[in-house]
Amino acid sequence: MAHSIFDPPPGSLRSSVGRGAFQTALSQGVLLATQIGSVVVLSRLLSPSDFGLLAMCTPIIALVGMVQDFGLLQATVQRPGIRHDQVSFLFWVNMAASISLAALLFVSAPLFAAFYGDPRVGPLVAAMSVIVLTSGAAAQHGAILQRRMRFGRVAAISATGAVAAFAVASAWAMVWPDYWALYAGMVAGTTVPTVLTWISAGWLPGRPRRVPEGRSLLGFGAGVTGFNLSNFVMHNADNVLIGRTWGGSELGVYDRAYKLLLFPLAQISHPLSRVMIPGLSRLVDEPHRYRSAYLRVQRLVLLVSLPGIACAIALADHLIPLALGSQWHASAPIFQALGFAGLLHMLNSQSTWLFISQGRTKDFVSWGVVMAAISVAAYVIGLPYGAFGVAVGLSVAQYVKTPLLWVWLGRTGPVGIRDVVGSAGPLVLAGHVAVAVVWAAQPWLPNAAVPALLLGAALAYGVVAGVIAAFPTGRATLREAVALVATMLRPKARPAPVTPPRG
Fold first, then answer.
1. Pairwise CA distance, residues 279 & 286, whole Å
2. Which H helix or E strand runs over 14?
3. What is the spatial distance between Cα 90 and Cα 72, in angstroms, rounded to a whole number?
4. Which of 8, 51, 97, 281 could form a disulfide with 149 if both were Cys (CB 3.0 to 4.6 A apart)?
5. DSSP letter at 46?
6. CA 178 from centre of chain
């Protein structure tokens, strides 16, 4: 395979991925703390209606962002031996789409205001055209950094953008406490990473022109976009249905519960995607190494995330007032219902790595259509019962989709259904057991929120470790986790001092 100027320097793929995962984890700690701080601080400065208004606009901007991307970032990351003229072609396609969509968003803003019956929606949607233009300008530069496996740089840029967004939104909300503070944070959180990404990539596009491979590049992107559109429907139909049927306040309560659950999970799954998709794409011709790398990371991700989710479900009555404030107590049962979807989310979200790294875009699209249909049906069934009913529907849909996903995905490729069941099955089982144990232990936990959550988390991790220790793959995962922690804590060896020669 020819070496591209956009590829990382020749060397150990394993060390590149391992170093990138470690650097990403460090940066994600900053990002997670910033985003949790944002939820805590802004929830106290702004009202549920403010968050509900932004949540009404979020599906619109998410859909526009998905169309402007058109899957071309993944085409840059996955395609073997990509050239400068091909990346330039993709850059100008992204920019043309961004300019067209920003203009369309601006002129159609009154239609969205009429749809929701709220005149505030129109100006907010029109203002978001700025975000569309800014994010589109950095798309291919970000893909170049991922392909070069500059994972530490990508994570640092992401964390810097989150800090900028938090700082601007909080400062604005302290002076003018309204929904425009959230918009100002979004602008800062897009502009700062765009500038840093251009500087870090060190690449300038050539003039716009066609390339012979343009059709195949766009075809790959179309397959990814087809899935993303289905994924968009799944993740945004609930907001649209609740906002239109029950109004901004009910949607605000649902949105805060959803974001409080999703923020920590997204800070694990999204950065790992930036590491794993390029790494697995280079191993696709080595099935044994591919399967081993995927399953090892899968188990470690579940070991880290599932006990925390289990604790949060069982102790939501402590977590919600502590994180959001007592005025958000109505979010607690919604959070608990969503939490059960979270137990499977961390397993299912990793399927994207397999679809994209193997180039299976047609399978990706087919699965996306099935996934969206099941999810929307569940939302509609739960909608008469308000936000809580939709949350229950979302979790039920996740349990229905999970076996279908892994049967479909395991038909071909290096990772089969038996591999996933043997690797992840004990951890998923342990996560559910941990929910039950921590729930039953509530009477013996302190009344104060912080001690209760700390003890509940310790109990959940202990239960998960105990359950998976009964399985060979579980014991291997525990040994690997201990070794990884030991490596992270071990101080770096200092070079021995050089003794000058006598003379």
1. 12
2. helix 13-45
3. 7
4. 8
5. S
6. 27
Length of the chain: 503
Residues 6+ apart with CB under 8 A from 74: 143, 220, 221, 224, 277, 356
Q: Where are the domains of the chain?
A: 1-221, 283-489
Condensed to tens digits (0 to 9), the pLDDT of residues 2-58 reads 445 666 665 545 555 555 555 566 666 676 677 777 777 888 888 878 888 888 887
Q: Comparing C-alpha atoms, which of 357, 353, 397, 390 is closest to residue 375?
A: 397
What residue type is 189 in one-letter code?
Answer: G
Q: Are 463 and 431 in contact (CB under 8 A)?
A: no
DSSP for 417-443, please give it.
HHHHHHHHHHHHHHHHHHHHHHHHTGG
Quickly list H helices, 247-360.
Answer: 248-281, 287-314, 316-324, 331-348, 351-357
What is the model's pLDDT at position 486?
A: 75
Rounded to whole angstroms, how far apart are CA atoms 128 and 144?
A: 26
Residue 295: which pLDDT band, with cuts at 50, 70 and 90?
very high
Contact 449, 322 (CB under 8 A): yes
Contact by Cβ (8 Å): 312, 454:
no
The residue type found at 342 is: G
Q: Of 211-215, 247-251, 430-434, where does mean pLDDT reach its minimum?
A: 211-215
**DSSP-based three-state secondary structure for 495:** coil
CA-to-CA distance for 17 and 15, rounded, in angstroms? 5
Answer yes or no: are the C-beta atoms of 353 and 412 closer than 8 Å.
no
Average of per-residue pLDDT across 69-92: 72
Token pair for 422? 């043997």
Full-model pTM = 0.66
454 phi/psi in degrees, rounded to 5:
-65, -45
pLDDT band (50, 70, 90) for residue 498:
very low
Q: How confident is the model at residue 488 (pLDDT cuts 50, 70, 90)?
A: low
CB atoms inside a 10 Å sphere around CB 329: 13
By C-alpha distance, which of 92, 76, 93 is closest to 6?
Answer: 76
Determine the Cα–Cα distance for residues 273 and 353; give it in Å rounded to an integer: 7
